[in-house]
Amino acid sequence: MKKALKKILSLKHRYQILLVIAVLFGVWFLFGRNSQKVAVETGIVKVQDIKQTVASSGTLQGKDTANLHFQSSGILKYISVKEGDNVTKNRALAGLDTQELSISLQQAKNTLRDKQAILDKILDDVKGHSSDETLTQRQTRTTAEVAKDNAFDNVRDAERALRESTLTTPINGIVTKVGAITGASVASSDTIIQIVDKSTIYFDAEIDEADIDKVKLDQEVKVTLNSSGDRVFNGKIDKIIPVTKTTSSGSTVIVVRVNLGNPEMTFVPGITGQAEIITKEAKNILTVSQDALVSKDEVYSEANEVYVQTNGNIVARKIETGFVGDTDIEVKSGLKEGELFVVNPANITPSRTSGGIGNIIGRLFGVQRGSGGGFRGNSR
Question: Which of 107, 132, 258, 370 is a plausible cystine mate for 374, CB 3.0–4.6 Å?
């Protein structure tokens, strides 16, 4: 090795230069021929509010919903409202044909009179024989009494049907559904009219079961509706409904009801949208993007490192972190407001050798050792 070094030193100066050039060319050929300079993206260390959130989808709903049914079947005589109408509590909205109901009531009364007469005749036959009434007589009397009681119940049902042949709304609200037409035959199971109380508007958010422990009453919520563009509706959690449901995708969710108050909007129950529930928040703190952390696996560690751009150099800086938001993280120490940090540290591949060939390779990759242990890069 020493002999080779002596031979090199004994060469004329021009040959020494040529030898150095050849060595550098070899290094470039092996390491730098196809390399590209790394573009460095930077962000600004700033003071701001950051938060943790739970996101979900859901639908717009009213305070209450009333599905109106007749208590008995019949022919629909009239409907006095249409979809979109506003109605007030106790207003009559629809009615059945009472002629048929009146006939049914009269027939029920006639049957009751008949059953009562039969029973009276049987009671008269056994009068004075209460102590020696035969089993046959007792059976006949009991059958007549039951028939009379049933006839009496039928009269009461017919009277109730006539009395309830008119549908009235139990709430104030808007008509969202009319499910029959005049002259049609309707059953007691048919929804004739649906009323929704829109005095308070709610957003029913479907929260994944994995996130439900983060959700509490009175947490602030920001809601956007697919029908309202970028407009944001502010609300608070009013109720967590303690029942699970399975979505069409197979996920298990819990419905959380968000009170939006009574904002100015075109209210249509069932409109879809998205909710952002703010579960935790830190205000007026110094922050950087979580993307700036050199070790992403240590995002929840108090000690971390970022690359900072200073005087054209990229310098590694130890920082102490705190509150973790959705995208940003608190910086307790190590940085100052207004400093520039590298957003894409994974693209920085500095050589940490002390010079010589290592520094040449660093230059060829567009990242060099800078003063104070830093690395130069190309910013944009």
Answer: 370
